[in-house]
Amino acid sequence: MYDMSYLMLIVVTLAIGLGAQAYVNHKLRKYQRVPIANGLTGAQCAQQMLAYYGISNVEVRPGGPGQDFFDPRTNSVTLSPEAYGGRSITATATACHEVGHACQFAADYTPMKIRSAVVPVANAASNLWIFLLMIGIFMNMLGLVWAAIAMYAVVVLFQLVTLPVELNASRRAMAYMGSIGLPQSEQKGSFDVLRACAFTYLAAALTSILQLLWLLGRTRD
Hints:
The chain is mainly alpha-helical. It has 7 helices and 3 strands, in the order ααβββααααα. Helix content is 75%, strand content 5%. α2 (42-52) packs parallel to α4 (89-106), α4 (89-106) packs across α6 and α5 packs antiparallel against α6 (142-179). It is elongated, with a radius of gyration of 20 Å. The termini are close together.
Protein backbone atom coordinates (compact mmCIF):
# COMPACT_ATOMS: atom_id res chain seq x y z
CA MET A 1 0.00 0.00 0.00
CA TYR A 2 2.96 2.30 0.51
CA ASP A 3 4.65 3.09 -2.82
CA MET A 4 5.95 6.00 -4.87
CA SER A 5 2.47 7.56 -5.00
CA TYR A 6 2.46 7.75 -1.20
CA LEU A 7 5.88 9.41 -1.20
CA MET A 8 4.56 11.96 -3.69
CA LEU A 9 1.54 12.54 -1.49
CA ILE A 10 3.79 13.23 1.50
CA VAL A 11 5.94 15.65 -0.51
CA VAL A 12 2.95 17.56 -1.90
CA THR A 13 1.09 17.81 1.41
CA LEU A 14 4.24 18.87 3.25
CA ALA A 15 4.88 21.55 0.65
CA ILE A 16 1.32 22.84 0.97
CA GLY A 17 1.40 22.81 4.78
CA LEU A 18 4.84 24.36 5.17
CA GLY A 19 4.12 26.95 2.49
CA ALA A 20 0.88 28.00 4.17
CA GLN A 21 2.55 28.21 7.58
CA ALA A 22 5.45 30.27 6.23
CA TYR A 23 3.01 32.63 4.52
CA VAL A 24 0.88 33.21 7.60
CA ASN A 25 3.93 33.63 9.87
CA HIS A 26 5.35 36.25 7.50
CA LYS A 27 2.12 38.26 7.50
CA LEU A 28 1.64 38.01 11.27
CA ARG A 29 5.21 39.16 11.99
CA LYS A 30 4.99 41.94 9.42
CA TYR A 31 1.87 43.52 10.87
CA GLN A 32 2.85 42.91 14.49
CA ARG A 33 5.33 45.73 13.91
CA VAL A 34 2.67 48.11 12.55
CA PRO A 35 0.82 49.98 15.35
CA ILE A 36 -2.93 50.52 15.11
CA ALA A 37 -3.97 54.17 14.74
CA ASN A 38 -6.51 54.17 17.59
CA GLY A 39 -3.92 52.83 20.05
CA LEU A 40 -6.27 50.21 21.47
CA THR A 41 -5.14 46.77 22.57
CA GLY A 42 -6.60 43.69 20.95
CA ALA A 43 -8.67 43.05 24.09
CA GLN A 44 -10.10 46.57 23.99
CA CYS A 45 -10.91 46.22 20.29
CA ALA A 46 -12.68 42.94 21.03
CA GLN A 47 -14.74 44.52 23.79
CA GLN A 48 -15.67 47.47 21.58
CA MET A 49 -16.73 45.19 18.74
CA LEU A 50 -18.91 43.18 21.11
CA ALA A 51 -20.51 46.40 22.37
CA TYR A 52 -20.99 47.64 18.79
CA TYR A 53 -23.08 44.54 17.99
CA GLY A 54 -24.93 44.67 21.30
CA ILE A 55 -23.37 41.49 22.69
CA SER A 56 -22.84 41.87 26.43
CA ASN A 57 -22.46 38.34 27.80
CA VAL A 58 -19.08 37.39 26.26
CA GLU A 59 -15.95 37.49 28.40
CA VAL A 60 -12.62 38.42 26.77
CA ARG A 61 -9.86 36.42 28.48
CA PRO A 62 -6.05 36.36 28.29
CA GLY A 63 -4.65 33.03 27.11
CA GLY A 64 -1.28 31.44 26.49
CA PRO A 65 0.89 31.74 23.38
CA GLY A 66 -1.04 30.80 20.26
CA GLN A 67 -4.34 30.57 22.14
CA ASP A 68 -6.72 32.66 20.06
CA PHE A 69 -10.20 31.14 19.98
CA PHE A 70 -13.87 31.51 20.80
CA ASP A 71 -15.36 28.86 23.07
CA PRO A 72 -19.13 28.46 22.64
CA ARG A 73 -19.31 26.30 25.77
CA THR A 74 -18.32 29.24 27.99
CA ASN A 75 -19.29 31.97 25.52
CA SER A 76 -15.85 33.52 25.87
CA VAL A 77 -13.08 34.85 23.65
CA THR A 78 -9.52 33.86 24.60
CA LEU A 79 -6.62 35.84 23.15
CA SER A 80 -2.90 35.12 23.17
CA PRO A 81 -0.61 37.63 24.95
CA GLU A 82 0.30 39.22 21.61
CA ALA A 83 -3.35 39.68 20.63
CA TYR A 84 -4.69 40.52 24.11
CA GLY A 85 -2.24 43.26 25.02
CA GLY A 86 -0.81 44.12 21.61
CA ARG A 87 -1.62 47.41 19.87
CA SER A 88 -0.80 46.27 16.35
CA ILE A 89 -2.75 45.51 13.19
CA THR A 90 -2.18 41.80 13.82
CA ALA A 91 -3.57 42.08 17.36
CA THR A 92 -6.65 43.98 16.19
CA ALA A 93 -7.37 41.65 13.27
CA THR A 94 -6.95 38.56 15.43
CA ALA A 95 -9.17 39.88 18.21
CA CYS A 96 -11.92 41.01 15.84
CA HIS A 97 -11.83 37.67 14.03
CA GLU A 98 -12.48 35.80 17.28
CA VAL A 99 -15.28 38.21 18.14
CA GLY A 100 -16.67 37.37 14.70
CA HIS A 101 -17.16 33.84 16.01
CA ALA A 102 -18.94 35.24 19.07
CA CYS A 103 -21.24 37.15 16.72
CA GLN A 104 -21.93 33.92 14.82
CA PHE A 105 -22.83 32.17 18.06
CA ALA A 106 -25.14 35.01 19.11
CA ALA A 107 -26.86 34.92 15.71
CA ASP A 108 -27.21 31.09 15.63
CA TYR A 109 -25.12 30.99 12.46
CA THR A 110 -26.00 27.65 10.84
CA PRO A 111 -22.51 26.56 9.64
CA MET A 112 -21.17 27.13 13.16
CA LYS A 113 -23.96 24.97 14.60
CA ILE A 114 -23.15 22.22 12.11
CA ARG A 115 -19.43 22.48 12.91
CA SER A 116 -20.11 22.26 16.66
CA ALA A 117 -22.26 19.17 16.11
CA VAL A 118 -19.51 17.47 14.10
CA VAL A 119 -16.70 18.27 16.59
CA PRO A 120 -17.13 15.25 18.96
CA VAL A 121 -17.35 12.75 16.09
CA ALA A 122 -14.45 14.38 14.22
CA ASN A 123 -12.25 14.35 17.33
CA ALA A 124 -12.89 10.66 17.90
CA ALA A 125 -12.40 9.81 14.23
CA SER A 126 -9.13 11.75 13.98
CA ASN A 127 -7.68 9.68 16.83
CA LEU A 128 -8.95 6.28 15.68
CA TRP A 129 -8.89 6.14 11.89
CA ILE A 130 -5.15 5.54 11.44
CA PHE A 131 -5.09 2.67 13.95
CA LEU A 132 -8.11 1.06 12.32
CA LEU A 133 -6.44 1.46 8.92
CA MET A 134 -3.21 -0.21 10.07
CA ILE A 135 -5.10 -3.12 11.63
CA GLY A 136 -7.12 -3.54 8.46
CA ILE A 137 -3.97 -3.57 6.31
CA PHE A 138 -2.00 -6.00 8.47
CA MET A 139 -4.93 -8.37 8.93
CA ASN A 140 -5.99 -7.99 5.28
CA MET A 141 -9.50 -7.00 6.34
CA LEU A 142 -10.96 -4.70 3.70
CA GLY A 143 -13.97 -3.94 5.90
CA LEU A 144 -11.76 -2.34 8.53
CA VAL A 145 -9.93 -0.35 5.86
CA TRP A 146 -13.23 1.03 4.59
CA ALA A 147 -14.31 1.83 8.16
CA ALA A 148 -11.05 3.76 8.63
CA ILE A 149 -11.61 5.66 5.40
CA ALA A 150 -15.16 6.52 6.49
CA MET A 151 -13.77 7.89 9.77
CA TYR A 152 -11.20 9.94 7.89
CA ALA A 153 -13.96 11.26 5.62
CA VAL A 154 -15.64 12.67 8.76
CA VAL A 155 -12.39 14.51 9.57
CA VAL A 156 -12.33 15.93 6.03
CA LEU A 157 -15.99 16.95 6.35
CA PHE A 158 -15.18 18.79 9.57
CA GLN A 159 -12.40 20.74 7.87
CA LEU A 160 -14.67 21.61 4.95
CA VAL A 161 -17.40 22.84 7.30
CA THR A 162 -14.78 24.88 9.17
CA LEU A 163 -13.91 26.91 6.05
CA PRO A 164 -17.15 28.94 5.77
CA VAL A 165 -17.15 29.48 9.54
CA GLU A 166 -13.65 30.96 9.49
CA LEU A 167 -14.23 33.01 6.33
CA ASN A 168 -17.47 34.44 7.68
CA ALA A 169 -15.79 35.40 10.98
CA SER A 170 -13.15 37.29 9.01
CA ARG A 171 -15.81 39.03 6.92
CA ARG A 172 -17.56 40.14 10.10
CA ALA A 173 -14.26 41.44 11.46
CA MET A 174 -13.53 43.42 8.29
CA ALA A 175 -17.07 44.81 8.17
CA TYR A 176 -16.69 46.08 11.72
CA MET A 177 -13.24 47.58 11.14
CA GLY A 178 -14.56 49.34 8.04
CA SER A 179 -17.60 50.70 9.89
CA ILE A 180 -15.53 52.38 12.63
CA GLY A 181 -13.46 54.35 10.15
CA LEU A 182 -10.19 52.43 10.36
CA PRO A 183 -7.73 53.95 7.85
CA GLN A 184 -7.60 52.17 4.49
CA SER A 185 -3.98 51.15 4.98
CA GLU A 186 -4.87 49.46 8.28
CA GLN A 187 -7.92 47.80 6.75
CA LYS A 188 -5.66 46.43 4.01
CA GLY A 189 -3.17 45.16 6.59
CA SER A 190 -5.95 43.53 8.58
CA PHE A 191 -7.27 41.90 5.41
CA ASP A 192 -3.78 40.55 4.68
CA VAL A 193 -3.58 39.00 8.15
CA LEU A 194 -7.05 37.47 7.99
CA ARG A 195 -6.53 36.17 4.45
CA ALA A 196 -3.25 34.54 5.47
CA CYS A 197 -4.91 32.81 8.42
CA ALA A 198 -7.77 31.62 6.22
CA PHE A 199 -5.20 30.18 3.82
CA THR A 200 -3.99 27.79 6.54
CA TYR A 201 -7.52 26.35 6.87
CA LEU A 202 -7.76 26.04 3.11
CA ALA A 203 -4.38 24.28 2.97
CA ALA A 204 -5.40 21.86 5.73
CA ALA A 205 -8.62 21.01 3.91
CA LEU A 206 -6.77 20.52 0.62
CA THR A 207 -4.17 18.18 2.11
CA SER A 208 -6.89 16.15 3.81
CA ILE A 209 -8.83 15.84 0.56
CA LEU A 210 -5.69 14.66 -1.24
CA GLN A 211 -5.08 12.09 1.50
CA LEU A 212 -8.68 10.87 1.27
CA LEU A 213 -8.50 10.58 -2.53
CA TRP A 214 -5.26 8.61 -2.23
CA LEU A 215 -6.84 6.21 0.26
CA LEU A 216 -9.86 5.71 -1.98
CA GLY A 217 -7.59 5.11 -4.95
CA ARG A 218 -5.54 2.49 -3.13
CA THR A 219 -8.61 0.44 -2.18
CA ARG A 220 -9.29 -0.10 -5.89
CA ASP A 221 -5.83 -1.60 -6.52
